[in-house]
Amino acid sequence: LRHVASVRESSLDPLEAILAELAKDMLSAAKSNFPRRYEEVAVDSQTIRGRIDFQRLAGKVPGTDSTLPIRFSPFTADNVLSRTIVWVAESLKRMSRHYATRAILAEVLAMVGGGVPHRRPSRNEVLTLVLSKYELAWQQTVGLARLLVNGTFINPSSAGGVGAVGILFPMEMLFDRALR
Question: Mind listing the pLDDT tens digit of every residue in the chain (180 residues)?
Fold first, then answer.
């Protein structure tokens, strides 16, 4: 179990409190686990590294090109997980109006976003993203990305299938404010 329940008092409105907790979780994950992966690349090259893509080679006209179609998997920061993290951080930063939350998200973007294209990953990429045991720090962020890519967001007042931030309200304060 990665997260232990805790209680914190906040003067922020409920959405800002949720965004602040998500931003803190992302910053903690970025400090402990930089998202690098082996990502397969298919290119035409004059040197062989990886393996020759014989299906693409069979479709080329002989004698017209001195390059070979190859596939290889470099260890890179530009991968589906990094692009998903950057997209979620940018989305949360646009939603937030609180300067401290925006500063935390800017720090996450500076740590993870270098060399990663700032574009929305496809729905299929996000829904099929599988984390390794070394990437479990990003589990909450990927869960949030799955909600965002489906056009929804965390509902703090109801139970759901995504482990996220929940909010408790003292009933007497809610009742008191509702009557005013």
Answer: 355 555 556 566 777 888 888 899 899 988 887 777 777 778 888 888 888 888 888 888 877 778 888 888 777 777 888 889 999 999 999 989 999 999 999 999 888 877 777 778 888 988 988 888 888 888 888 888 888 888 877 665 555 555 556 666 677 776 777 776
Instruction: State the helix-helix crossing angle for 80-95 and 14-32, rounded to 10 degrees.
Output: 150
Q: What are the start-end ranges of the H helices in 34-179?
A: 54-58, 80-95, 99-112, 123-127, 139-149, 171-179
One-letter amino acid at 47 equals T
In sign, the C-alpha dihedral spanning 137, 141, 144, 148 is: negative
How far does Cα 120 stand from its chain's mean position?
Answer: 10
**Which secondary structure element, helix H or strand E, spans residue 25, and what is its range?**
helix 14-32
